[in-house]
Write a structure and sequence with these properties.
CATH topology: Beta-galactosidase, Chain A, domain 5
Order of helices and strands: HEEEEEEEEEEEEEEEEEEEEEEEEH
Strand content: over 45%
Structural class: mainly beta
Number of helices: 2
Low-confidence stretches: 1-22
Radius of gyration: 18 Å
Helix content: under 10%
CATH class: Mainly Beta
CATH architecture: Distorted Sandwich
Shape: globular
Number of domains: 1
Mean pLDDT: 90
Strand order of the largest sheet: 1-10-11-12-13-24-20-19-16
Length: 307
């Protein structure tokens, strides 16, 4: 797996870093990580902060900033301590990786590398993880790739996850509640001042309360962060095993998650059948309309491949 990290970086035409306490970049791009966190700066401003080790249960993107410098993510609010800003979690063979109780599984960090592509203006992290039971049994292994860059007038973070079986295991059943997937919790000021915008223009059916599942290539959230208008958009890649169903809610707080409807139909991982997903989170300064979002989505879709 580590050899694959090197190959990916070479294909990117990048400078690859491994180890602790490293920084690389130019005036327009800086990628750094220590033993616990990794960061990307674009044009001398913070863009993304990823916490990958010494975490309670799962690594996550702790901060994501608009080009103007506004962070939109909130980590571990008092009402739901297991909501870690931007996180990815499912259930595997009946073990819950979303909530954080003694019965839940852990995403265990096993290795990290990073690449700075100065020409493309992107900073990328490559991580190896084991998805383990509370007793330490490995249910799945993950190769996670997170790339941050500016595209058009937005900061865009692309998240690839490839889940495979560990040696000796013949299958795994992936399930989850209707909100399991890649989920984002926003800064407190965004909870009450926002509204969702769907690619189709219409919200999907209610699942419970004001929680909805809406299919489509993207879903956006307009709100106010630090007194400034912002837009957060999640993109679904057409190569994913199923079209995204966007989980949205606003009461008592705002949440957005890219789901695979695993509560309706589980997915099976086999020796020659990994689970691969690719999503992106784009953040704009101001309230981006549908046409602006579609232009960004079309460009991202053309350039985002597998990892």
């Amino acid at each position: 797996m580590r050899r694959m990290f090197w190959l990916v970086a070479v294909l990117l035409g990048s400078c690859l870093l491994q180890g602790c306490g490293v920084t690389v970049g130019s005036r327009n791009l800086s990628v750094a990580y220590d033993g616990k966190e990794a960061s990307v700066e674009l044009h001398d401003h913070p863009a993304a902060l990823y916490r990958f080790d010494d975490v309670p249960f799962k690594p996550y993107v702790k901060e994501l900033h608009t080009p103007g410098g506004v962070n939109v993510l909130r980590d571990a609010p008092a009402d739901h301590l297991h909501h870690h800003a931007l996180m990815f979690a499912l259930a595997v063979d009946g073990v819950d990786f979303w909530a954080e109780t003694p019965e839940c599984g852990r995403q265990v960090h096993r290795g990290m590398a990073s690449a700075a592509d100065v020409n493309a203006g992107s900073g990328t992290f490559f991580q190896q993880l084991d998805w383990t039971t509370p007793a330490g049994q490995v249910l799945l292994q993950e190769q996670r790739t997170i790339q941050t860059q500016h595209i058009q007038d937005a900061t865009v973070l692309t998240w690839w996850s490839q889940l495979t079986l560990p040696q000796g295991k013949t299958s795994a059943k992936v399930t989850g509640s209707h909100y399991f997937g890649l989920g984002a919790r926003f800064v407190e000021s965004m909870d009450k001042a926002g509204s969702f915008l769907y690619a189709s223009g219409e919200a999907g059916p209610i699942v419970r309360g004001d929680e909805r599942l809406t299919p489509g290539p993207w879903c956006a959230y307009h709100s106010i962060a630090d007194g400034k208008k912002v837009t957060v958009v999640m993109f679904d890649h057409p190569s994913n095993p199923r079209e995204a169903a966007w989980f949205t809610m606003q009461t008592p707080f705002a949440y957005l998650s890219a789901t695979l409807r695993l509560h309706e139909k589980p997915l099976q991982v086999g020796p020659d059948r990994p689970l691969k997903v690719c999503y992106a989170v784009a953040v704009f300064d101001g309230h981006a309309d549908g046409a602006r979002i579609r232009r960004l989505y079309d460009e991202w879709r053309r350039t985002a491949g597998g990892s």
